[in-house]
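Example record used in the benchmark description.
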Amino acid sequence: MSVEFVDTNTVIYSLGEDATKRRKALAILARKPVISIQVLNETANTMRRKLNFDLPAIRRFLLDLMGESRMHPITPATVLAALTIAERYGFSHYDSLIVATALEAGCRTLYSEDMQHGQLIDNRLTIINPFR
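Model output (C-alpha cells):
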C-alpha cells in the first residue's frame, strides 16, 4: 500500500518540458502513489485550458493515471475534515481537501509545491516539495 499522495502539480510536471521536473514527477508516479478525484479533475482542467490537450488525449492520460495510482474518494466527511484543516493550518479550501484526503488514505508523505516544504500535519503527514 502506497504511503505517498501526489498533488496535481506533480502530475502536470510529468507532462512538462522541464526535463528535471518531468523526471522527478515520473519517478514519483512510478511508485503508484495515492491520488484523489480532485487531482484527476484539476489535471484534466489544466491539460485542456493551459496545455491545449484535446479531450481524447486527456481521457487516455487520466485512464493511465487511474490505472497506475491508488484512488481515494472524497466524501462529505473529507470535506468537513478539510474545513478543520483549513482552520488549523490556514490552507486554502482546495489545499485543505488535498491534505484531508491524504490523511484519510493513511499517507505519510504529500508531494506538493503549493504548501510549506517539510511541514508536518497532525504528526502524521509531511509535505515535501520534490521540485525545490
